[in-house]
Design goal:
The chain is an alpha/beta fold. The chain is 32% helix and 23% strand. The chain has a single domain, classed as Ribokinase (UDP-N-acetylmuramoyl-L-alanine:D-glutamate ligase).
Length: 318
């Protein structure tokens, strides 16, 4: 098995994305849509896809069924050069699906069913073999919504000298929160909740209070994703707010995952905390201008050129 830079663990699924056409009469039995499409999704595969396109050696760890949806994901993994050697497929297990309704401003509502619980799937014991980062790409969703699974994965990662990063989700079918993983939180180097997730996790309404609650629990660096308002960062290198790039959003699906992937790429390349956030915001901005989580950044050259353009623009306004 080749040496990996990063391992992404979490959800891989197929999204059915419906772009709404205005406000339809709810009494209608048939509704119009701008478009309906299938897209590969799930936090772990989204992160892995962008990281691979950015030139990194990335492994995906997830559970799939031996069904057409699983075939679609596996084909996507192979085409994007992602290591899928630890993907677990099992007959009779349904590959998770999600139904997403996208509004005209790019915001969305998602529907998930009980197949996302992945009841019979437990991630394998990791052989970190030089891996620098282990990304818990969908913390609080299966398979990362079981305390024993999380503790085993995180302890193994830290014993092997890996950075541990966690992108959070709101739980759907299992109840799990900060108190359930109190002894795990101090082993997390970077956590990436969005504003709604941070509020739910902490019970706080202010970004500084949200971050303080997470840092008091032991997390070293807190990056709160705030959509069109950018991100709020509280970490060992200080705290700051970074505005989002001003782009016209078509579909926000996967924007947070693209942000995290860009941020992790920056970590792997030795960027500062500020520059990691800047690179993440570029990847997110490209994503929201396209349909589906995988419709964003295509190469490191593209992202680096956008980063250079952003830097030139910022310097011209100083």
């Amino acid at each position: 098995m080749s040496r990996m830079e990063i391992t992404c663990i979490g959800q891989a699924l197929v999204d059915c994305i419906t772009r709404r056409m205005g406000e339809e009469d709810p009494s209608k039995r048939v509704h119009r849509a701008k478009s309906i499409s299938l897209s590969i999704g799930g936090d772990a595969v989204n992160e892995a896809t962008v990281l691979a396109r950015l030139g990194h050696r990335v492994r995906l760890v997830c559970g799939l069924g031996q069904d057409p949806a699983g075939d679609l994901i596996l084909d996507h993994v192979r085409r994007n050069g992602i290591d899928g050697s630890l993907i677990d497929r099992k007959a009779g297990r349904p590959t998770p699906l999600a139904n997403l309704l996208v509004n005209e401003d790019g915001s969305r509502v998602s529907f998930n069913d009980a197949s996302s619980l992945l009841e019979d799937y437990i991630p394998p014991v990791l052989s970190c073999d030089g891996t620098r980062i282990v990304s818990l790409a969908s913390l609080f969703r299966a398979p990362l919504d079981r305390r024993d699974t999380l503790l085993r994965l995180v302890k193994t990662a830290k014993e092997n000298g890996c950075l541990v990063c966690a992108d959070t989700k709101l739980p759907t079918f299992r109840n799990i929160g900060l108190s359930d993983i109190a002894d795990i939180l101090p082993m997390i180097d970077y956590i990436f909740p969005n504003d709604a997730e941070a509020a739910w996790l902490t019970g706080c309404g202010d970004y500084a209070d949200m971050s303080a609650r997470l840092r008091d629990a032991g997390v070293k660096n807190v990056i709160i994703k705030a959509g069109s308002d950018g991100c709020y960062v509280y970490g060992r290198e200080g705290h700051f707010h970074m505005e989002a790039l001003p782009v016209k959003a078509v579909d926000a699906t996967g924007a947070g995952d693209n942000f995290v992937a860009g941020f992790l790429s920056g970590l792997l390349r030795g960027f500062s905390l500020y520059d990691c956030c800047s690179y993440g915001s570029i990847c997110a901005a490209v994503c929201v201008q396209n349909i589906g989580a995988g419709g964003g950044v295509r190469s490191r050259e593209e992202a680096d050129e956008l980063a250079a353009r952003k830097a030139r623009l910022c310097s011209s306004h100083e």
